[in-house]
Amino acid sequence: MDEKRLIILRDEKPFQAILSLAIPTMMGMIVQIFYNLTDTFFVGKLNDPYQVAAVSVAFPIFMMLMSISGMFGFGASSYVSRLLGEKDYEMAKNTSATAFYTCIFAGIAVTILGLFFISPILRLIGVTQETFSHANQYLTIIFMGSIIIMSNFSLGLLLRSEGAAKIAMFGMFIGTGINIVLDPIFILLLGYGVKGAAIATLIGQLSGLIFYLNFYLKQKSLISINWKYFSPKKEIYLEIFRVGVPASINHMMMSIAQTLGNYVAAGYNDMVVAAFGINHRLFSMAIMLLIGLSEGTQPLIGYSYGAKKIKRLNQIIKTGELMATAISVFFLVFFYLFAGEMIRIFINNEQVIDYGIKIMRALIIALPFAGIQFIIRVSFQALGKGKPALILALARQGLFYIPLLFTLNSFFGFSGFIFAQPIANILTFLLAIILFRQIKLQINDEYQEAFSENTSSQLEVEESYSKI
Question: Which helix (H) or strand (E) holds 91?
C-alpha cells in the first residue's frame, strides 16, 4: 500500500494537496482536448467533407460510451475515496472490482446492441446518405471496441479516487500519443480513411488500458480489480449509482445542449455555425482545466468526509474555489483581450471573426461563476450526495440553458442566442450555492452527532476504568 498517496489525502496542506492531484488531472484534460481533435484533423487532410462529417456526427456516440462508463467510474471513485478515509480497505477493493467488472458487462451489452442497431442509430443522429457508409465504418469499429474504451475511462477515474492522478495522466498520455502517431499512418499512408481513424483510436485506448492494468497487476494500488473482490452487493451499487447516474446525465446533457446550440446557430448562417463551433473549442481550454482542478479535489473531499475531518474538508473546498476563481478570471481577461486573435488561429474570415468576438464577449460574462460551480458539483459527488448532484446535472443544460436558448432566441434574435448560456450558468451558480448551503448544514449535524457519540463512548470508558 502506497503510504505517500495516503499522506497526500490525509495530511498534506490543502493547497499543496490539490496541486498534487489536480495538476496531473488538468494536464490529462489538456491531452483530452488534443485527443478529441486528432481524428478530425487528420481526416480533414483527405479533403473529403463526407468523411469529416462522418467523424463529427459519430463523435457524440463516442462520448456516450464515456458517459456510460463514467456512471461506474465517477460513482465508484466517490465511494472509494470515502471508504479509504474510513480505513475500510476491504470494502474499497470490493467497490473498485465490482465497478470495473460491471463496466465490462455493460461494454459487452453496448457492443451487441450497437452493432445490431447501428443503422437506426446513424439515421437517428442525422447521418446523410453521402456520409452513411463512412459513419457506418467508423462506428462499427468503435462499437466493437466498446469494452476497451469504457474500461480504460473507468480505470482512469478509479485511479484518481486513491490519489494516483499521475498514473491516470500517464495512461492518457500513452493513449493519446499512440493515437496521434498512428492516425497519419492508417488514415493517409495506408489509405484507410475514416476507418483508419477508428482503428488508431482503438489501439490508443487499448494501450492506455494495458498501462492501467499493469499498474493493478503489480499491486501498486490501494484498491483492486481482482475478480475475487467482485461483490455485486446492493449497498455497493446504490453508492455507485447515487453519484454515477448524475455524473453520467451531466455529460449526456452537455452533448445534447451542444447539438441544439448548433441547430439554432444553423438558423442564422454558416458563419454563425463556424463562429459558435470555434468558441466551443476555445472555451474547452478553460472548462477542461476547471474540470481537471475540480476532479483533483474530489478524492481529498471524499477522504476527509470519510475520516470525519470536517475542518480539513472545508479548507479543501474553500481553497479549491479560490483556485478555480483565479483560473476563471485569468481566462476572462485573456479571452476578452485576445478574442479576435484566438479565432483567427482557426479561420481568417472577417465575418466569422466578427461573429466569434460577439459570441465570446457574451460567454465570458459567466466564466468567473463556472469554477465555483464545478467545485460544488464535484463536492456533491465526493460526499455521495446524489440528489443535489442530480439536480445540478439536470438544471444547467436541461432546466435553464435549453429553454432559454429557444425562448431568448425567439424574442431577442442573435443577442438572445449568445446570452442564453451565460444566463443559464449564472442561474445554475445561484442554485448550486443554495443546495451547497443545505448540504453544509447536514454535514455539520452529522459531525456534531458523531462527535457526541465519540465523546459519550470515551466517558463510558473512563467511568469503567475509574471503577476498576
Answer: helix 89-116
